[in-house]
Amino acid sequence: MRNKSPLSIELYNTLMQDGYGHQFATLITDNLNTDFTAGRMLGYLAHYDHLPEVEIADEMLAILSDRKQIMDKKAAESYNAAWNNYRQAGIFDNIEE
Fold first, then answer.
1. Is 95 among the domain residues?
2. Distance CA 20, CA 7 (A)
3. Model's pTM, two decimal places?
4. How many structural domains is the chain composed of?
5. Is residue 96 included in any domain, yes or no?
C-alpha cells in the first residue's frame, strides 16, 4: 500500500474525530491516499455534520471514478501529442496505405 498524503492523514483524523471507526477510516483513507482525492472528500464532509458510512463510501467511489476519468483524459492527450509529434516529424511519410 502506498504512503498516505498529508491530506489523507487529515481525512483519517477527521473521520476518527467525527466518531467513525478505525477500520472504516482506514478503508477510506487507503483508497483516498492522495491530496487530490482526500481534499475532495474533506470538502464533501465539510458540508455535513455526520453522514452514514454508506454515503461516505458512495462519495469515495464517485471521487475515484472522477479521478480515473481525469487520468484517462490526460493519457489520451499524451498519446495524441506523441502521435502528432510523429506525424510532424514525417516518420509515417514513406508508409504506403
1. no
2. 17
3. 0.71
4. 1
5. no
